[in-house]
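Archive maintenance. Older records in this collection stored only the sequence; we are now back-filling the structure field for every entry so that each record is complete. The fields below show one back-filled record exactly as it appears after the update. Entries are processed alphabetically, and Type II NADH:quinone oxidoreductase is next in the queue.

ARCHIVE ENTRY
Title: Type II NADH:quinone oxidoreductase
Organism field: Macrococcus equipercicus
Length field: 354
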Amino acid sequence: MKNLVLLGGGYGNMRVMQRLLPSALPEEYTITLIDRIPFQGLKTEYYALAAGTESDKDIRLEFPKDQRLNQTFGEITAIDLDQQIVSVGDSQVDYDELIIGLGCEDKYHNVPGADVYTYSIQTITQARKTYQAIADLPAGSTVGIVGAGLSGIELASELRESRADLKIKLFDRGERILPAFPEKLSKYVKKWFDKHQVEVIPKSNIVKVEPGKLYNNDDTHDVDICVWTAGIQPVEIVRSLPVEFGEGSRVRVNQYHQIPTHPNVYVVGDCALLPHAPSAQLAEVQAEQIVDILKLQWAGQPLPDKMPDLKLQGFIGSLGDKEGFAYLMDRTVTGRIARIMKSGVLWLYKYHNG
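Back-filled structure field:
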């Protein structure tokens, strides 16, 4: 039997399994999924877990069940591209094709103390720890959130609804929130924060983190807890691979999403260098193309001269339970409609994945 090995059970590899099982996988193949936890954590919702507005069971899905799907749970300790072996603790798994979808971790930009004195929402385990730390705060405490991208915005807004008794400071590196998108969207989000007493600090540059203190440019801010949402990078085991990397330490892949020196190895999601910012939507669109390539190769057919562009619909963000914002098909949507749209996307994902 041949073995297609999937590293990581995130959005990309979930789509791969959805497309191949139960009937599109060749008879001589099995799939082996390797992950540290026995379910998919819905990473786009980790901010809600950390804020305490969603429970653990509401943001996870069971992996597919199929007689040709083997599941191995544990920490991946080595990936040998030449020998085609993945090590999980003391055990080893051989592969014929490999899809690396191990996701990302926080990038601290060499800020002293950031990796020691801040909390994270990059994994479900880290989001649980962040929730517990916030839940234990007494009334009147201050939470600092470094980074006003989508994760930072959603965490700040959800936390405001969860803990009205806390002070929240959101440190934004830009002059305005979400500067890459229309000013209308930025103003809407800023207005929501002003109305709900979330302090947004623009032009921030965190230079040091200490217990209870954030150093922003020449200012010092007292905080009881700091959550870091100011950048990501591929997980360390991917960054240590003997391959070529590009911006953000992401793996350079060819148009077929393969590592050029090892064309039987694909990289999906946050670890891949692509012409779009990492997102769950991007991982799923990329996974669709990877499955198409695999099917062609398994059938002995030639690959296309040029792959279609990866087309994304846009993004949707929430501002608490009742409002949201979106940028879809070059149009800005704000308010209740955007929030309903985000809830609908989440419902559809859960429905289509069991």
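Update note: The chain has nine helices and 23 strands. The radius of gyration is 21 Å.
Entry marked complete.
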